[in-house]
């Protein structure tokens, strides 16, 4: 499950598949909250929506867009708060959580870490064999996160497991790679 966190619009997308096989759209949606509501109420709405999706779709993992600094502090704060809610919802269920930067996601789905929203939407449409790009962009971004995690997350998990096994067998420091 991919989550594109936001306080006003929080994209959620579920994709089924594995590396080397065609991926399939399971569902996509955008949770919306009104900017006229107090932030705590908006966060509760996001939490309930994410919880409902996690209960319904029971994903194997959750990929959340890593919050990065922008010029507008209020936007960063809302995104970070929504991101935290998404991570808590997944962690409460013991699900693996991955954070992917926007440029990682863009590079994974389009081959260009600086792709624009239209390019990402077009590639999500092509990868999932959809009739039209998911709207709004938050929906396409959530699907792009799920796709990225399927394609990159599995490989990263195998690398992490191999490093952990190598560290355990050689007594070296975990996470340290010998050359």
Poorly predicted segments: 172-179
Helix content: 40-55%
Termini gap: 35 Å
Strand portion, in percent?
Answer: 15-25%
Radius of gyration: 17 Å
Average pLDDT across residues?
90
Number of helices: 5
Task: Identify the strand order in the major beta sheet.
Answer: 3-2-1-4-5
Number of strands: 5
- Shape assignment: globular
The topology string of helices and strands comes to EEEHEHEHHH
Structural class: alpha/beta
Tell me about the largest β-sheet.
Answer: 5 strands, mixed
Question: Topology of this structure?
Answer:
Blueprint: E1 2-4, E2 9-16, E3 24-32, H1 39-57, E4 62-65, H2 73-92, E5 97-100, H3 102-110, H4 117-127, H5 137-170
Verbal overview:
The protein has a five-stranded mixed β-sheet with strand order 3-2-1-4-5. With 179 residues, the chain is α/β, with parallel strands linked by helices. It is built from five helices and five strands. It has helices at residues 39-57, 73-92, 102-110, 117-127, 137-170; strands at residues 2-4, 9-16, 24-32, 62-65, 97-100.
């Amino acid at each position: 499950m991919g989550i594109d966190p936001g306080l006003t619009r929080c994209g959620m997308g579920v994709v089924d598949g594995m590396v080397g096989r065609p991926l399939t759209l399971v569902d996509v949606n955008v949770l919306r909250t009104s900017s006229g509501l107090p932030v705590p109420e908006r966060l509760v709405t996001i939490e309930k929506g994410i919880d409902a999706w996690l209960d319904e779709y029971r994903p194997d993992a959750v990929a959340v867009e890593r919050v990065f600094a922008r010029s507008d502090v209020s936007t960063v704060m809302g995104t970070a708060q929504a991101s935290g809610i998404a991570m808590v919802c997944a962690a409460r269920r013991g699900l693996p959580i991955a954070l992917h930067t926007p440029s990682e996601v863009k590079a994974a789905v389009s081959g260009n870490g600086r792709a624009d929203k239209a390019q990402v939407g077009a590639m999500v449409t092509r990868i999932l064999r959809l009739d039209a790009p998911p709207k709004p962009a938050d929906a396409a971004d959530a699907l792009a996160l799920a796709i990225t995690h399927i394609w990159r997350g599995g490989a990263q998990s195998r690398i992490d497991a191999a490093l952990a096994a190598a560290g355990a067998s050689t007594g070296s420091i975990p996470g340290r790679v010998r050359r």
